[in-house]
Amino acid sequence: MSLGAEQLERLAALARLRIDPGEAPALKDALERILGLAEELAAADTTGIDPLANPLDAVQPLRADTVTESNRRDAFQAIAPAVEDGLYLVPRVVE
Amino acid sequence: MASETPVTASSLLEALDQGRCSAEELIRDCLDRIGAVDGALNSFITVDAEGALAAARAADADRAAGRAGPLAGLPLAHKDIFCTEGLRTSCASRMLDTFVPPYSATAVQRLATAGAVTVGKTNMDEFAMGSSNETSYYGPCRNPWDGDRVPGGSSGGSAAAVAAGLVPAATGTDTGGSIRQPAALCGITGIKPTYGRVSRLGMIAFASSLDQGGVMARSAEDCALLLGTMAGHDPADSTSAREPVPDYRSGLTMALDGLRIGLPRRWFDASLDSAVGDRLRAALGELEARGARLVDIDLPHNHLSIPAYYLIAPAEASTNLARYDGVRYGHRCKAPLDLEDLYTRSREEGFGAEVQRRILIGTYALSAGYYDAYYKKAQQTRRLIRQDYLDAFTGVDVIAGPTAPGTAFRLGEKIDDPVTMYQEDSYTLGVNLAGLPALSLPVEPLGGLPVGLQLIGQHFDEARLLALAHRYQQDTDWHLQAPPPPGGAA
Amino acid sequence: MNWEPVIGLEVHLQLATRSKIFSGSATTFGAAPNTQASAVDLAMPGMLPVLNEQAVRYAVLFGLGIDAEIGRRSVFDRKNYFYPDLPKGYQISQFAEPIVGRGQFEIVLGDGTSKTVGITRAHLEEDAGKSLHEDYHGQTGIDLNRAGTPLLEIVTEPELASAEEAVAYLKALHSLVLYLGISDGNMAEGSMRCDINISLRPAGSDTLGTRAEIKNVNSFRFVEKAIAHEIERQAELLDSGGSVVQETRLYDAERDETRPMRSKEVATDYRYFPEPDLLPVVLEESLIEELRATLPELPTAKRQRFQDQYGLSAYDAGVLADSRALADYFEAVAGTCSDAKLAANWVQVELLGQLNREGLTIGDCPLAPDALGGLLARILDETISGKIAKQIFEAMWQGEGDADSIIEARGLRQVSDSGAIAAMVDAALAGNPEQVAQYAAADDQKRKKLIGYFVGQVMKTSKGQANPALVNQLLAEKLPD
Asked: Which of A20, B89, B301, C335 has its CA 20 to 30 A from that of C408?
């Protein structure tokens, strides 16, 4: 299992992380070892086996369509890094 | 003080009920011990002295007025992954260093309603990602039995705080062994219930289909007491089970004659420290002497738990942690240049190395072209692993084995090698993948360090695990042994 | 070259639930920013989604309405991407196992022909918040009130061949969802938004060209213009030897053009996987049957029935069946007056005209259908003429009472007394000898015109109340051959 530098960059971009060039080789090595571990899975015959997304074979409960939440904007925005006029602020987004 | 016979939650409640002490005295005592010991131990991230004293006084008042809840005045610590309204909840991450949630987790709420008093929030691996408590933003927690060793992880702070007698019990969470392994390494009893047994609402997510809250305490009896309060259906968690919660405490005395205990053959082979194996066999022999039958079993796919888990858990984590973007709460980098810079720098600064590593692995496992080979394959293997357990349970009532491959290892020993660190979880991961309940209880220590025996039950059969552990603890006192006092003086 | 457009639409329909799809927050439009954003909507740590039952029922109703396969088991997935209006960093959507599978849907085009449009699928998902780009010191403001509003994304096959077909489809879809009562369909408030996939291929070819996607177009008119512009843009590109880039574009209504979206520059990989915080949605047969039993007669069936039962033209039936409220109104009028064609005519011309002039919808109509039916009944029993009826209609609209009381109060009853009318006819002939002489000399065509003139004279004398049939009959008798 080998990860190209470009691939690593792309993963970091998708995850919105930045890889420090100094740490890249160690990180690449660690990731490759973990992915190498994953290759052991090839030993399992999973032909016709459904993926198990959840350990219990339960089905989704449904919630009645009622409004149960009240306005807690002040409490929520008290812990926000940047707000104005009730809005969360981010650097200008261009569509 | 720490070498005194530790007091259990059950005995403290008895003392409170009989008026032998007040909740305020208990809390002051806890705070004093934390003040004396925790500088070196580092088991707490946040101590809420003021809030705890106020809650203790309220509990005393309730008791005087005859309206006390079943846990009124009981000191308790919460792993810092459980949201506590008005009390900083960091998940041991710089990302949430200043995060004070405006709500509490359902489990926290239920314990508080029963009268338990929150003393503080315990140390852990960052976002519960680790097996040694060394990935915490707040520095590693130490093992009370040997300060050079890790307490295990990720619920290391809870395990260490209980083992050191700072609190009688604490909450923990277990995604791949994070309650059981630190319980084993610190010499306490810890139970990870069936997936869905304890609400995940307000428990900060690591891997949603694996995470499960539970209890870490001295004894199985204390675990039964607290689990009974925490467990139960929560309509705000879609994955919460509707199964009724039995009275675990009264179940402790259930008849266990002829109980069949399955021993997975491969769990007692060369991968296990042989001395640890001897301790476990001795304990199992005692259970056999009390009427249990030991049966060899096979879990043919269980060795694939590590690769399956280390794809599934990071995959879920990689998206669970996408919400930490510096916009609505949590760490935000200074003076972002643009939106991408805000995201990237906030996350890079906010997350530690292990968390970033797992996010990248998870992103890879889910990405186009790799999904089938990694994520899907892991989930298919997961079904095989679960089926092995279900098949085994047609012939046995409980499965027993090691909790961890050895005793507590030294700080720094495995932290630079993730794959070696991951081996630490080889006996615990399958349980999470299958959603089963399991507990770890202390058996005879080895070289002054605790050894844990793991008991695994069928879905929703926590009561039998607790009863079996309780039976063992009736006749032994390993669970009541305390670590030497700090500084090494006997 | 002669290019043939291939168009597929993805409609995002906001469902008319009271609360959000995964939280108990209100979905009311226009609330102050972030006052309807709960801890779940804000993706606070530890928060979890629970599915709204009504959203599921609405999705199933839609599926039944287009005769689609209903997913007995459907699964929610996470669609992962970073955007400030998407608090979790993923959208909960359905990917591999949607709640509504393949269906179809008949639309009627301008020339009266109909076309069946294939629906690939419809799935449930959550809406995102809104980015407000007004200048907050060079920053963008985020309002998450809309985040978590239930959406049904309805995807067509790429089978629409023109802007006209696309708009006809959207109008028919709009009509259907209002019939089903699953959305308020308020396009100005974004309840129905459309992504347009469009490509060109040489006429007659059966391979698809490279497509562009135009995001978030929210009115029928803009859909029409956006498609027209995009066809023109792609045709120019292809004609000049260029090629179409597969990209996401934005329709700018102010400049009336499409342009590439800059925010989507980073190549995306949505990494769909089953949402572990939710379990598979399993629909009991009993629920599906219960919902099927509540299905109203749908526009296509109603259109056909109006033609069969009332003998209406396809066009009239289409107009009247367009909305359930209008169709019900029409049927009530027809029932009261027992003449469906007259009712159809009056509802379409007088009633809709008046509603349009006042900017009202049928739901706001001040005139009850039995009141209008009562008026039409007076035309049919010859108490009044159609012309007088229009006058009475105005008065009824102003709230002056029912038709009979207005007829009485204003003395508008039609004169059908042949003696009285004969006297008026005589007076008209005597007062216009010149026209009588012209009539005598005129051919048939000219005579018709002159008869009209004499009828007018009589009507003037009678203040419009003379029975027109009787006037005509007496004129024919009294005019020279």
From this structure: C335
- The residue of chain C nearest to residue A73, with distances taken between CA atoms, is C35
Give the Cα-Cα-Cα angle A36, A38, A39 (nearest 5 degrees).
Answer: 70
Q: Would you call B155 a catalytic residue per the annotation?
A: no
Asked if A60's CB is within 8 angstroms of C280's CB, the reply is yes
* Residues C250 and C229: beta-carbon distance below 8 Å: no
The domain spans of chain C are 3-290, 297-410, 418-478
The verdict on whether B154 is a catalytic residue reads: yes
Q: Provide the β-strand partners of residue B217.
A: B169, B189
Mean per-residue pLDDT for C59-79? Answer: 97
B336 occurs within a structural domain: no
What mean pLDDT is reported for chain B? 95
Query: In terms of residue numbers, what domain contains B413?
Result: 9-263+393-480
B185 token code pair:
């390494």
- As a whole number of angstroms, the distance between CA B48 and CA B54 comes to 10
Nearest residue in chain C measured CA to CA from A95? C263
Which tokens hold the place of B104? 């509490």
Rounded Cα–Cα distance for residues B475 and B478 (Å): 10
Work out the average pLDDT over B219-246: 98
Q: Is residue B104 part of a domain?
A: yes
Q: How many CB pairs under 8 A join A and C?
A: 124
C144 and A88 in contact (C-beta within 8 Å)?
A: yes
Which CATH number does the domain housing residue B470 bear? 3.90.1300.10
Shortest CA distance from C277: residue in chain A: A54
Interface test mutation site (partner C, options B211, B327, B377, B383, max chain C beta carbons within 10 A):
B327
Check B178, B219, B305, B346 and give the catalytic one. B178
Whether B178 is a known active-site residue: answer: yes
From chain C, pick out residues whose CB is under 8 angstroms from the CB of B96. 45
Average pLDDT over residues B261-271: 91
| Per-residue tokens: C356 | 């349009």
Q: How confident is the model at residue C461 (pLDDT cuts 50, 70, 90)?
A: confident
C161 close contact with A: CB closer than 8 A: no
| Token output for B192 | 């990870």
* pLDDT at position B1 over 70: no
Q: Does B242 touch chain C (CB under 8 A)?
A: no
Tell me if B188 is assigned to some domain: yes
Residues C10-22: tens digit of each pLDDT: 999 999 999 999 9
Residue B308: pLDDT above 70?
Answer: yes
For A62, which residue in chain B has the nearest alpha carbon? B238
Which residue numbers of A have CB closer than 8 Å to C's CBs?
13-14, 16, 51, 53-54, 58-69, 71-73, 76-77, 82, 84-95
Query: C191-216 burial string, b = 16+ CB within 10 Å, else e?
Result: bbbbbbbbbbbeeeeeeebebbbbbb
In this predicted model, which residue has the larger pLDDT, B389 or C443? B389
Looking at 1.10.10.410, 2.40.10.10, 3.30.450.20, 1.10.10.10, the CATH number of the domain C418-478 comes to 1.10.10.410
The CA–CA distances, whole Å, from B330 to A86, B101, C33, C204, C297 equal 18, 10, 21, 57, 53
Nearest by CB: B239 against C46, C142, C277:
C277
Who's near C427: CB < 8 A, 6+ residues apart?
A: C461
Could you tell me how far CA B64 lies from the centroid of its own chain?
34
Q: B485 in a domain, yes or no?
A: no
ipTM above 0.90, yes or no: yes
Q: Using CB atoms, list chains with 3+ pairs below 8 Å to chain B.
A: A, C
* pLDDT digits 0-9 by tens, B365-395: 999 889 999 999 999 999 999 999 999 999 9
Residues 6+ apart with CB under 8 A from B83: B89, B101, B103, B104, B105, B108, B202, B203, B204, C45, C46
Q: Are C9 and C174 in contact (CB under 8 A)?
A: no
Q: Catalytic residue, from B154, B199, B240, B440: name it.
A: B154
Q: Report the 10 Å Cβ neighbour count for B67.
A: 10
Tell me the C-alpha distance between A54 and B238, whole Å: 12
